[in-house]
Amino acid sequence: MPPDSGPADHASPAKHASYEGSDLLRIEEQLTPEERLVRDTARAFAAERAAPHIADWFEAGTLPRELAPELGKLGMLGMHLTGYGCAGLGAVAYGIACRELEACDSGLRSLVSVQGSLAMYPIWRYGSEEQKQEWLPRMAAGEAIGCFGLTEPDQGSDPGNMRTKAIPNGAGWTLSGTKMWITNGSIADIAVIWATTEQGIRGFLVPRTARGFTARNIHKKLSLRASVTSELHFDDVHLPADAVLPGVTGLKGPLSCLTEARFGITWGATGAARTCFEAAAEYSRTREQFGRPIGGFQLTQSKLAWMLADLTKAQLLALHLGRLKEAGKITATQVSLGKMANVRTAIDIARQARTILGANGVTLEYPVIRHAANLESVLTYEGTEEIHVLALGQAITGLSAYR
Known about the structure:
Layout: H1 8-11, H2 33-50, H3 54-60, H4 67-73, H5 91-104, H6 106-126, H7 129-140, E1 146-149, E2 165-168, E3 172-183, E4 190-197, E5 200-207, E6 213-217, E7 229-240, H8 252-286, E8 288-289, E9 292-293, H9 298-326, H10 332-357, H11 368-380, H12 385-397
Parallel strand pairs: 1-4
Antiparallel strand pairs: 2-3, 3-7, 4-5, 6-7, 8-9
Helix pairs in contact: 2-5, 5-6, 5-8, 6-7, 6-8, 8-9, 8-10, 8-11, 9-10, 10-11, 10-12
């Protein structure tokens, strides 16, 4: 669009090049009718409900909580889980929803993936029947928000050395410690908190109303601004005996949740990349220099061609991992490959898109710099790029580089 167009003209992927223009290999034709319905529903929600406001939300550093029940009505919260009000859809459908939401903004996708993969999933997989009945239906409807507390101020990539502790007190547990960089932390009704115990690492359900539980929002972020990020403090929080998730002990619990979330990120990153590519392609057709559109210059076409090639490979990788997951054949290492490769690809595409847009690429009138900034957080959370590189290195060599 011309550089003097208003912000609303550039916020929505629907305003950019046609969707088929970023699907050169017609990958979408491999989707089932149900998956296409999920795609169209998520895309419409993002375009109509979020895109007109996302630049303002990003600038203000907020994301409206009322989006959660709206997403719940569409069946997008915990959509890959079965029962308890969850949609019970396949892995590819879940990935597509993540892609379409992140095509709008990573913060919007984070709201959905944290709720479904990090908060609902551990309750669904490791919780008691009472815990499932109490929380999952409300969380699926968006009436209750959840968060996931694993990272600590001094323990990010090494959760096995966490300092948050839960000590038996006779009638239950006493929880003490701090969690950092927690999405949805201050708006959550229930927090899934991982702590060390005498038996090993255990998961605990901590309600927002628990005495001694406080949350403080983290401000002055320059990335993932349209998302609530918090620091959680637990000052001798007394929990009943049935607050613990009974179905798992050890790092297997939180790490399995992270694998679920990383799968969604593998798809979501392709949405951010697609929006940046389409914004750059459309801009190149309308922005003129030296008497003609910049899209007619060889250097610009070279950038766009490589961006599309890389985006296509990322899309194929996400779809293949989705089919592996649906077949019950996916591994954590395969998900690490997907998260590592696709996030790096998305960052590279965002940076190339920014160069095509020139100075306009650093304003919120266009989506590119917002996605580029967000992807710096996506690169780090749910496992840093370095950790995924070493996971793959261990799979290749049989040797651990960090243990």
